[in-house]
Amino acid sequence: MITTPTVRLAHGADMPRLGLGTWPMNDAQAERAVATAIEAGYRLIDTAEAYGNETGVGRGIKASGIAREELFVTTKFDRRWHGRDLVPQAYQASLDRLGLDYADLLLIHWPNPGHDRYVAAFEGLVDLLQDGRLPAIGTSNFKPAHLDRLITETGVVPDVNQIQLSPAVTRDEARAYHQSHGIVTESWSPLGGQGADVLNRPEIAAVAEEVGRTPAQVILRWNVELGLVTIPKSSSPERLRENLAVFDFSLTPQQIAAISALDQGESAAVDSDTFGH
Questions:
Q1: Which of 72, 88, 33 has the alpha carbon at shortest distance from 56?
Q2: Torsion angle, alpha carbons of 93, 99, 102, 106, to 10
Q3: Which distant-in-sequence residues (6+ apart) come within 8 Å of 259 by Cβ?
Q4: Which secondary-structure segment (H or E) carries 7?
Q5: Helical segments of 11-107, H only
Q6: Among all residues, which ones are annotated catalytic?
Q7: CA separation for the pair 118, 109 (Å, rounded)
Q8: Can you give the pLDDT at residue 195?
Q9: Do residues 74 and 47 touch, judged by C-beta distance below 8 A?
């Protein structure tokens, strides 16, 4: 079984560098995938209120038989909970669905700046952190401008910002901002997602041939080389094991540069100023 390296977060928690993404699985699919992933060696599991599969994720965790403290479980809450007093309710609702006593990381799923309540939502997260109810807090899909406002108004830095990031959308500005503020960058849709077709790019195939790995392994290793945490989604037992087997080889600076050169710019990412839930 593969042991996944971890990264130390700003508030002291240790987060695995690679985990299982569960969007867009339903409860039954998530239950099977989570149990299979944990058996293969995964210790980071990512879900969200909006995915509608927290119950299945919790069942998969229970079915795995592994001790809770060996896992790092992340979930996220939606816009309707953007209020300092509402966040504890969102957290408890997620825990009830998961069947867990605590999560390791709770994220604001989208900033929804038009709603203009994300600072209050983060204040609610800070309360949970300071009360010892959460080991780590963070954001998802926040731009540097959103993060700047959070840090300025609360004085607290998120542990993690989870953003859309792949060779097609390398998010250089966001990654630089995170690094300068001690925020860990976590990439969702790391293999490019629907429509990006990153896995079939000849540049990726060339590197894969050079290192004797699959295109997916090369892209996930690129994530690791950039210092990211990443959460590829898969329900295939074989693919789950393959995705985790990226810590026993490395890429050269030239290979990393060739992959990064596939970037299509910020406009290729979902715009979190206009989209959110």
A1: 33
A2: -50
A3: 167, 203, 204, 207, 218, 219, 222, 251
A4: strand 6-8
A5: 27-40, 54-64, 87-98
A6: 51
A7: 10
A8: 63
A9: yes
23/189 Cα distance (integer angstroms): 9
Q: Please, are residues 39 and 237 in contact by the beta-carbon 8 Å criterion? A: no
State both tokens at 156.
């607290």
Residue 246 is encoded by which pair of tokens?
Answer: 């990226």
Residue 216 tokens read as 């997916």
Each residue's pLDDT tens digit, 162-190: 999 999 999 999 999 999 999 999 999 99
Residue ranges and CATH numbers for the domains of the chain are: 14-264 (3.20.20.100)
* Neighbouring-strand partners of residue 72: 44
Q: Which tens digit of pLDDT belongs to each residue from 210-224?
A: 999 999 999 999 999
Task: Please give the helix or strand (H or E) that residue 241 lies within, else none.
Answer: helix 237-244
For 80, which DSSP code? G
The encoded tokens of residue 119 equal 């600072």
Tell me, what amino acid is at 163? I
Q: In the chain, helix, strand, coil percent, each to 5?
A: 45, 15, 40
Sheet of 20-21, strand order = 20-21, 44-46, 72-77, 105-108, 136-140, 160-164, 184-188, 229-230
The owner of tokens 């849709």 is: 189
CA pair distance 250, 74, nearest whole angstrom? 27
pLDDT tens-digit series, residues 221-248: 999 999 999 999 999 999 999 999 999 9
CA distance 230 to 209: 23
